[in-house]
Amino acid sequence: MMIRKLLFILISIMIASCGEKLMEAPENIIPKEKMIEVLSDMAIANSAKNSNVTIIRDNEIDPTAFVFKKHGIDSVSFVASDRYYASLPSEYESIYTAVELRLTEKKQELEDAKAVSDSLLRIEMEAKRKLKDSTKVKTKVRMGDSLP
Q1: What is this structure's pTM?
Q2: Which has the closest alpha carbon to 28: 61, 72, 70, 91?
Q3: Rounded to an integer, what distance in angstroms lies between the CA atom of residue 95 and that of residue 89?
Q4: Do the Cβ atoms of 28 and 76 come closer than 8 Å?
Q5: What residues have CB less than 8 Å from 7, skipping those under 6 apart?
Q6: Taking a C-beta distance cutoff of 8 angstroms, is the pair 70, 41 a contact?
């Protein structure tokens, strides 16, 4: 009976503590919307870093520093803000859900642009092929027209 009461009290404390702030917001907190932008750009930069290793190394580019500079933040404010948002699980989850949505939308935009580019390239190649074919036909006609 005593164990049940103790277990009930512990579970009640755990449930109540989930809604409490574990830490205060830092003075230099990055606003939620900007944090979403930064994290989205960080994901893209890390992806580029992994797929374009030589280009990044040869040009001495630091993708993380590039993202921080782009957004006018420093690593200290980023880490403090990330730690703060991580202390609020529902807020942190909503940030990462928004990042995932933004990356999915960006991927779709790029795929659409690539499809348009591929279509234009295909049309251009088809036009060149037709022009080349029509040139061949004219050349054969001229050669056949001449009298010996």
Answers
A1: 0.65
A2: 72
A3: 10
A4: yes
A5: none
A6: yes
Residues 91-97: contacts with CB under 8 Å, at least 24 apart: 91/32, 95/32, 95/35, 95/36, 95/39, 96/39
Phi, psi of 135 (to 5 degrees): -65, -40
Domain ranges within the chain, ordered by starting residue? 23-102
Listing DSSP states for the chain in one string gives -HHHHHHHHHHHHHHHHHTS-SSPPPTTPPPHHHHHHHHHHHHHHHHHHHH-HHHHHHTT--HHHHHHHHHT--HHHHHHHHHHHHTSHHHHHHHHHHHHHHHHHHHHHHHHHHHHHHHHHHHHHHHHHHHHHHHHHHHHHHHHH---
The model's confidence at residue 92, banded by pLDDT at 50, 70 and 90, is very high
51: Cβ–Cβ under 8 A, 6 or more apart, which residues? none
| Cα separation, 139 vs 43, whole angstroms | 56
Whose tokens are 């690539």? That residue is 114
Predicted local confidence at residue 107, as pLDDT: 92
Q: Residues 4-14: pLDDT tens digits? A: 766 667 676 66
Token output for 85: 């948002």
